[in-house]
Amino acid sequence: MPRKFFKRIMPSHTEIKEHKYLSIFGEALHNPNLWHMNRRSVAGAFAVGLFFMWVPIPSQMVMAAAAAIIFHTNLPLSVVIVWISNPITIPPMFYFAYLVGTWILGEPVQNFEFQLTFEWLQNELETSWKPFLTGCFVLATASSIIGYFSISQFWTYAVRKERSRRLGKTK
């Protein structure tokens, strides 16, 4: 059943409640609806997490937690999914977002050599921020919609399969 799988990969309630960045939510973290594992809360958590993984700022986890509280989705899962974008995956993800943005805006792709300096980052963002942010927004929206409906369908399929398995054993 999907619930068992998701419970295995999620951090515990105390880990989330004691996290230094998430402590700003205070008593809101004690809402039991944020910890439920059902089709709606898990699919919503995927939508929230997949959306905020494309947000190009460091406080993705905090924003995902706030959205989970607002939309009453599973908070730990929302926060964990954000970590799909990590220091290893961010460069290819954000370059892909830039390419999507250039395609949508009809702008040419700029060739550049990456340098790990603040000056390079500032100069590159001056010329490529529109396609980059457009691509991030489009991919965030598409990811969250696809994630929500995919998980919802997967959950429904798994529950039906488990039910039919149980009914088959009782006959």
Explain the overall architecture.
By secondary structure, the chain is an all-alpha fold. It has one domain. The chain has helices spanning 2-9, 13-17, 39-52, 60-71, 75-82, 90-105, 118-170. Helix 3 (39-52) packs antiparallel against helix 4 (60-71) and helix 3 runs antiparallel to helix 7. The two termini are 21 Å apart.
Total of DSSP H or I helical runs spanning 4+ residues: 7
Strand residues, percent? under 5%
Taking pLDDT < 50 over at least 5 consecutive residues as the criterion, the unreliable ranges are: none
- Mean of residue pLDDT values: 84
Radius of gyration: 19 Å
Shape: globular
Largest sheet: none
The tally of structural domains comes to 1
Oligomer: single chain
- Class inferred from helices and paired strands: mainly alpha
- The string of secondary-structure elements, in order, is HHHHHHH
> What is the number of beta strands?
0
Ends distance: 21 Å
Percent helix among the residues?
55-70%
Keywords:
171 residues; mainly alpha; globular; 7 helices; single chain
Brief synopsis:
The protein has 171 residues and is mainly alpha-helical. It has 7 helices and no strands.
Question: What is the fold's blueprint, element by element?
Answer:
Blueprint: H1 2-9, H2 13-17, H3 39-52, H4 60-71, H5 75-82, H6 90-105, H7 118-170
Helix pairs in contact: 3-4, 3-5, 3-7, 4-5, 6-7
